[in-house]
Specification:
Radius of gyration: 21 Å
Number of helices: 14
Strand content: 15-25%
CATH superfamily of the largest domain: Response regulator
CATH class of the largest domain: Alpha Beta
Order of helices and strands: HHEHEHEHEEHEHEHEHHEHEHEHHE
Structural class: alpha/beta
Amino acid sequence: MQRREFITLLGGAASTWPLAASAQQAERMRRVGMLQTLAADDPQTQANVAAFIQALQQLGWSDGRNLRIDYRWAGGNVDEIRKYAAELVALAPDAIVAAGGAGLPSLQQATRTVPIVFTQTPDPVGAGFVDSLARPGGNTTGFMALEYSMGAKWLQLLKEIAPGVTRVAVIRDAAISAGLGFFGAIQAVAPTFGVELTPVNVRDPGEIERAVTAFARTANDGLIVTGSALTYVHSDLIIALAARHKLPAVYFNRDLVSRGGLISYGNDVIDQYRLAAGYVDRILKGEKPANLPVQAPTKYELVINLKTAKALGLTPSPALLARATEVIE
């Protein structure tokens, strides 16, 4: 989605506000906050928000008529996430949507009463965000990201598309439970695949570049890029480093493959935002987050970039191509 189209989508409803003034007097205006951990001009974020708005419209909620959506875009900055979480809670919305798990600690610290619906959050029970998947308890529920066992699948795919790989750098955010969980899952199966692992943290671009450059010493090296807000913020750099050092890389999200990555396997992120709109609708109609079960992903995507494969001297097998959801020529 282009930036102009995205702005038009967000602002289109505003042009109808004068015409809807009399209707608003009769219809209660509800308020929803949305805490996005990435920047407003991020393409994946734009697509996610657009899907959320469209799903709400199909459920009868129109921004500017019977609903107001307050957005905050943190751009991957931890301090901004904390600040914007407090700002959204102070607005006393009927619900808040949290994009990913990065903003949940700040939101839960700021409120235990305002309903929170999260997307793309790994291990919400282990992280302490909910009591259980079936009965979340409290004011928080939502939609899980990939389970840690996906780490084994990523390593399997890397060996399938690049069988010669024997050393793998795992790019992860060690400051969050997902970073530790995914690395642990990959580490558990690494001996089975005959690979040696090296963790690479994503605190800042300089650290990533130094670590990947130091790692990429042989023709048998590869990358696994696990999901987090910081990983996404630095994704252009990671993709460029993989190309520069000719490293076969498996990514957690199809968007990174559309921008030049080799292969990805992960859940359909946009689908989670459509489903999140359904939970917001139910909350606005009186249901409690404590009674809405946390849902695991049900739609997965395997995407392969053949142009990148060719540049790396790799030929994906017909069996792998046949399993792909999308093949980018």
